[in-house]
Amino acid sequence: MKKKTAAKADAKSKKPMQRKTAIDNATTNAGVDQAKTNGTTEVNNVNPTPEAKPAAKKAIDDALKAKNDAIDANNDLTDEEKTAAKADAKAKADAAKQAIDNATTNAGVEQAKTNGTTEVNNVNPTPVAKPAAKKAIDDALKAKNDAIDANNDLTDEEKTAAKADAKQSRCSENSDRQRDNKRGCRSS
Description:
This protein has 188 residues and is mostly helical. Helix content is 76%, strand content 0%. The protein has nine helices and no strands. Helix 2 packs antiparallel against helix 3, helix 4 (52-73) runs parallel beside helix 6 (106-121) and helix 7 runs antiparallel to helix 8 (156-169). The two termini are 64 Å apart. The model has no long low-confidence stretch (mean pLDDT 83).
């Protein structure tokens, strides 16, 4: 807003007034035409460059990129969960950009930028599918271990070996190695 006000003030400055005085002082048609050309050229050369809104939109774009990178890095999210979270973040970024476009003052632009980056940053998807599947496997392992323990026909050594086999079967090459290491899975 300050840039717009400054540009208007510059366009209305003494220079056009001086050009009008030059027109008044001209004694020939050519002099009048030259003073008019000089005056309109100076007025037309006032071209303010927007700064606040483009900078605010860039901050929103940067926040969106960072959020998308964080979403992509979250291996607990499925592709569908990632897609939904990215769509949510983009919708919030688009709304923030619209609010920036609608702002008429620098303070309004700054507030829209702050609100927008906060909204984008607050998109924190909760993994659902993978944790549920992992829990189902853990529950199945617990049930299998309980069944092994309850089988009185097995010796302690056979029970230990069967539990180790059951534990290893829940591990896979595509699983999270850090999680598997905590669970005692052997590397293959």
